[in-house]
UniProtKB/TrEMBL annotation:
It comes from Kushneria avicenniae. Keywords: Receptor, Signal. Residues 1-22 form the signal peptide. Belongs to the UPF0065 (bug) family. SUPFAM superfamilies: Periplasmic binding protein-like II. This is Tripartite-type tricarboxylate transporter, receptor component TctC. Gene3D superfamilies: Bordetella uptake gene, domain 1 (3.40.190.150), Periplasmic binding protein-like II (3.40.190.10). It comes from the Bacteria. The keyword Signal applies.
Length: 324
């Protein structure tokens, strides 16, 4: 009896020792991070996503502690696809992260061949939610969303609607609003939000849809008719939501951080905890607010669910309104 117990204890000790040695010899479980964490941004330096990555990066360093270092690497091109692909293909050791833009990142998997899908990433945290708006110029005859919709209904397809591009939150906002109102707009894509805004202010289009942050600073030139969110924004508390005005439409830009799928559990947990801690960081909140961005921390499985829902919206719109 005692021999059997002793033999069991010896075997258990050997097993635990082997497991411990395997853990120590696995680089993924070494002290993390043991080198700079690289954040891949699929857009050019100076753009909104790049600025977000650099701002959040310095607070992420503080949250991780242990002299953590976060560096940004820009890989622009193909509407962000190059950067998203690089993240998906990177080693899942926690030293390569990437910014992730919804719904744009998932829309790219429907309108072209993409080397990633919704299952290619570990979803760490969404950081910013920037709801879309429906806007006109201050010189416009339309003073309400109802008046704009009525004009579109009178001549379906004739009312020009400026978009920053096809296959993103602006485009999807216009499609969802048209469906909710049972009408059509003449969708006119531009090369970026600034060009769409310029066309709108120049009177070349009747209306536009753009993220709320892209209207900040243009209050004397733009009239925001609706915010496409579930509640009014603190940045424009006087502007009603589309839902308040009878059109159940929500769409916006979500920007967060992902890693290649398959992070070791302890590293993923540490990163999630660091991002979760940012939710109460007043300095980060204030710095983002100065840019017109709302801090909206959504971590782990909840973030994955958000990505899946945005992917579903993109798939449905692609099926009914293919844009290429």
């Amino acid at each position: 009896m005692f021999k059997m117990i002793r033999r069991t204890l010896v075997i258990s000790a050997i097993t635990l020792s082997a497991q411990a040695m395997a853990t120590l010899s696995n680089p993924a479980f070494a002290d993390y991070p043991d080198k700079p964490i690289e954040v891949i941004v699929g857009y050019s330096a100076g753009g909104g996503t790049d600025v977000l990555a650099r701002v959040v990066g310095k607070y992420l360093e503080q949250a991780l502690g242990d002299d953590a270092s976060v560096v940004v690497k820009n890989q622009p091109g193909a509407g962000g696809q190059i950067g998203f692909t690089s993240v998906a293909a990177a080693r899942a050791d926690g030293h390569t992260l990437g910014t992730f833009n919804l719904p744009a990142a998932m829309a790219l998997t429907y309108d072209r061949q993409a080397a990633y899908d919704v299952d290619s990433f570990d979803y760490l945290a969404n950081v910013v939610h920037d709801p879309n708006t429906l806007v006109v110029s201050q010189n416009s005859p339309y003073h309400s969303l109802k008046a704009l919709i009525q004009a579109a209904k009178e001549k379906p397809g004739s009312l020009g609607m400026a978009l920053s591009a096809l296959g993103g939150n602006d485009h999807f906002s216009a499609l969802l609003l048209a469906a909710a109102a049972d009408t059509e707009f003449n969708l006119i894509p531009f090369n970026g939000a600034s060009m769409a805004r310029t066309a709108l202010l120049g009177g070349h289009v009747a209306a536009g849809t753009m993220a709320l942050s892209q209207t900040i600073g243009f209050e004397d030139e733009l009239r925001v008719l609706a915010v496409l969110d579930d509640e009014r924004s603190s940045f424009a508390p006087e502007v009603p939501t589309a839902k308040e005005q009878g059109y159940d439409v929500e769409m916006g830009s979500y920007r967060g951080f992902v890693a290649p799928h398959g992070l070791p559990e302890d590293i993923r947990s540490r990163l999630e905890a660091a991002f979760r801690a940012l939710a109460d960081n007043k300095a980060l909140h204030d710095e983002l607010a100065a840019q017109g961005n709302t801090l909206d921390i959504v971590v782990g499985d909840d973030y994955r669910e958000l990505a899946e829902s945005q992917s579903d919206i993109a798939a449905q719109l692609w099926e009914n309104h293919p844009w290429k």
